[in-house]
Amino acid sequence: MKLIRLILQGFKSFADRTTIDFAEGMTVIVGPNGCGKSNISDAVRWVLGEQNVRNIRGQKAEDIIFSGSEKRKAKNAAMVSLILDNSGHELPLDTAEVSITRKIFRNGDSEFYINKRSCRLKDIQELLANTGIGKGSMVIIGQNQVDRILSARPEERRVIFEEVAGISKYRMKKVDGLRKLEKASANTERVLDLKAVMEEQSEPLRVEAEKARKYCALQKEKKTGAVTAALLKLSAARRMMARYENDQIRLEEKKQEAMARLEEVGRLQKQLENEMGGHQKALSAASGELADKKAQAEQLRGDCRVQEENLKHASEELNRLTEQREDEQQARLECREDHEACREELEAVQAELQSGREHLEAIKQQKELLEEKLLASKAEYARQLQATQESIAQHERLVQEKNHREEDKNRLDGEAQAHEMRWKVLEEECSKLKKEKAELTRKHLELEAKLSQLTEKGKEDAAARDKAENIRYEMLRRLNERQAEEKQVQLRRKDLEKQMEEHVNFSHTTRTVLQASEAWSQHIIGPLGELIRVPEKYTAAAEIALGSMISNLVVDTSETAQTIISWLKNRHAGRTTFYPLDSMSGYPVREILQAAREPGICGIAASLFEHDEKISGIMQSILGRILIAEDMDAARRTAKKYRYRFRIVTLDGQVVNAGGSMTGGSMRKKDNTYFGRKSEIKKLAAKEKALHEEIGQQRAAKEKQDALCESLLAAITREREEWQNRSIEAASMKTRLEGMEKELAGKEETAQMEKNSLEMARSQWEQADQACRQLCEQLEHAQKPGKQPEKDEKSAQLQDKVNALNEQITDARVQLTRVESNVAQKQEEINKLVEADEESGRTLERLQEAIEKKKQAVSDINVRLKEQKKQCEEADQHWKVMEQKRQILEQQAGDFSRRRIALDEDWKKVQAQYAEADSRMSGLDARLESFRNDESRELDTLTSMGLTEKTAESFRIKGSGEDIKKMLASVEKRIAELGNVNPQGEAEYEEHMEKLAFYDKQLEDLRKSEEGLQKIVHEIDDAMTAQFRQAFAKINVEFGRIMKVMFRGGKGHLDLTDKVNPLNGGIELYLQLPGKKTQSLTLMSGGERALTVCALLLSFMAYSPAPFCFLDEIDAALDDANVERYGRMIEDYKKKTQFIIISHRKKTMEFADTLQGVTMAEKGVSSLITVRVSDYIKEE
């Protein structure tokens, strides 16, 4: 894989397009200082993926673009292309040459191409990995690279070895694996969060599901009962229908027989009329007047018959009313007899009641007399007993009392003297205590006033603190609610964003194309849905209008679309639609612009949906003939007006298609649609922001409230301490005051008691002295007491009689209560009989009134009947006169008349039978219709339950209609006891558990994925470590060998700083130059450092030859002898590697196969001259 050419345009000093061809072997680029030689190596470094501008001698990105000269303007872009020979297919591309191009614009935009196909920088880096010219390799050693390589940290030096060892691609795979592992860990954490949130909801959902299961079971039981009830009613209705239908069939047969008979009679009548026709013609002239009179007579007879029938009915009705009146009179008579009997029974019971009351009063009077005698007897006995006892007791008492009085006189005299002395002492002490109490009371009142003030202040502060605490707790509650809400909103938003990132609403083919990393990926503008911004109002309409077009891809050109279609076809990856920007355009027609202004039309879809200007053609092409309407009425009206030329979509997603067909119905949930998700993400983001701001405000407010609560608490604490101190002082003072009051009261009381005792003692002494004298006189005159009276037998007998009378009174009262109950019962019966008699009287009055009316009607009918009979007799007389004139003709017509009369009678009889059958048939029809309605109603009930009569039989249960009714009432009661029930609770719980199971499976899959990724990372580490160790060992050997050649002796070797894990450690260089000790790299001269880097580079080439290598003035610090060795060593390796050396040294130029001269013919602009040395050698 050789470097064929390098193309530069606008890169640094190469303003014009410059092509540099590189031959095999060694190419030396020469030229004066500042002519732009090193810009060539910078260009190669940049095109291979260098991202740090400082490494290509710039400060910012635009520094690498030609900045202009005195005669030229600055370029707006810089471009470098590197063409490699790929005939050996070292690169995984099917072309003999590989072109790598990088382009940068002044606005900072960059473009990358592989074989003129757009790609990413990462694609270039992956393509060149493990080729020896990838990122971190030493294929380009610039003017400042020598010191940078030698003075680099060991870990930075290891990166160069990794590229040479060919493990950089493994490193990239490891980084990719670690990124995927991190992503899997993040997904695991996210799923765990979602699972935790759902597990918190499990128990409430389980409870709801349990209620829903019970509710469903009860509903099923209710349905079973309702179906059974409906089937029972249906069966009953059908039984009655069958019964009445049979009756109807029988009546129909009777009607048919009557109709047949009527037809037969009619036929005979017609035949008779035909026979009489001739006869009537002969008699018509003679019997004209007779016929009129006859007709008149017949009419009068008919009227008479009608009146007779009315008279008959009226008489029957009169008889019925008369009988009813007689029955009512008889019933009233019986009622009055019952009333009289009840009244007699009531009088007897009342008499019994009066007798009982009189008996009770007599017993009570007898009892009162006995009680009076008993009291008198007891009083007499008590008096006698008391007199005797008092006589004995009085004598003894007088003796004892005389002795006591003598003793009291002596005692009271001593007590009076003692009381007088104590009373005087206590009076003095009380006077002193009163003065101390007054002073203490004054101080206590002042302290109480202060305590009252502190108490009021404490209550106010406590109320303020309680209020502040309540506000604080409410703030805390709202803050927690908002934080929980924010977390829920954040999780929901992230979940939706994840779904949007994963393009869940797009087709599998679209996702496959978007995930591809081919060269054409840069030419995909994006899915159509991502390029459109739909206002909230038009979300449903946009989903329907676009449909599957949401996932169709917008690309820059039709060539790109064709390339991707070929790629999909080759990979059998499905189909999708592409919208090339260069081939799709559209403009609204005049007619649709007119339609867009119709009432109820919001506008053209292409104009209502926001989008970038560059896809306007595509929008007009696919949505330019679609109108958005407010509702279906406006859509239909507009479609009809414009002859169904356009497709019209309503805001709620209903469609009137071009041509007149209509599409509509319910839609998916809004959060399952693409634009619904986008709208919800926007809303959730706004809500999250608002919640975040609100939480910040609430947190700040809560902190202020916390400070207020703390300050109030401190104030309350201070006041409480002061109150407690004052309260203790007041309590102490009050205790002293109470003690003083008690002491004063005690002393005053004691003093008063002593004073009272003194007075009492004096009074008692005088009384005792007086009593002693009286007692002596009484004892002198007192008689000796007699014997006590015997036991009171009379009173005991009287008490027994009173007890017996009490029992009689109780029995009498019981009997009296029973009789009073009978009286009330009889009185109630009498009241009912009176009401019945009154109602019977009213009924008789109504019947009498009806009878009078009916009699009047009979009388009127008789009058009319007499008049009509009289008229009939007159007509008959006249008819007889006429009849005599036509005897002969009447005799001949007699047979005809008799036959006609017989037929008329038959006609009337059959017609009456038909009318009766028809009437009964009408009644049956009404009843059948009622039962058919019942049948239809019950069938509708079954239909509303989603059942047919056949399928409903499977729900039938045993039991009567009353049992089913009770069962349904019980079920309704149990349903009511369940309270509010979510009918979808069970399904929601199952869905919830399925989601939990899904999350568990996801967690398991993610953990397996993590384990797999970790295993892959470990395997990559092991492979990298093994390959690195192998490469390091060989490079170390080569480095030692080349060092000896370069320095003509000495030693050099490489060492790992971390031998256990070399990929995480660094590489140290140890050198011992000829005749010197091992020394630090910093102490080496410039030439020694340059030779060391050359030795390191060549050791790399010995292990893994790079396709080419750029050395930029690396020989500047070498003397001629070292340049000679340097040139010889490079000559040994140029068979496998192209060397492009930038140098000023003639000795180096001698080794060149090709010389490239860089100069500035125009100031500030580099140009190139190529000389092939071998051509000149041949000429010489």
TrEMBL record:
It is found in: Cytoplasm. Keywords: ATP-binding, Coiled coil, Cytoplasm, DNA-binding, Nucleotide-binding. Residues 234-499, 730-757, 795-878 form a coiled coil. Its main location: cytoplasm. GO terms for molecular function: ATP binding; ATP hydrolysis activity; DNA binding. Pfam families: SMC_hinge, SMC_N. Residues 522-639 form the SMC hinge domain. GO terms for cellular component: chromosome; cytoplasm. ATP binds at residues 32-39. SUPFAM superfamilies: P-loop containing nucleoside triphosphate hydrolases, Smc hinge domain. GO terms for biological process: chromosome condensation; chromosome segregation; DNA replication; sister chromatid cohesion. Contains large globular domains required for ATP hydrolysis at each terminus and a third globular domain forming a flexible hinge near the middle of the molecule. These domains are separated by coiled-coil structures. Homodimer. Belongs to the SMC family. Required for chromosome condensation and partitioning. This is Chromosome partition protein Smc. The lineage of its organism: Bacteria, Bacillati, Bacillota, Negativicutes, Veillonellales.
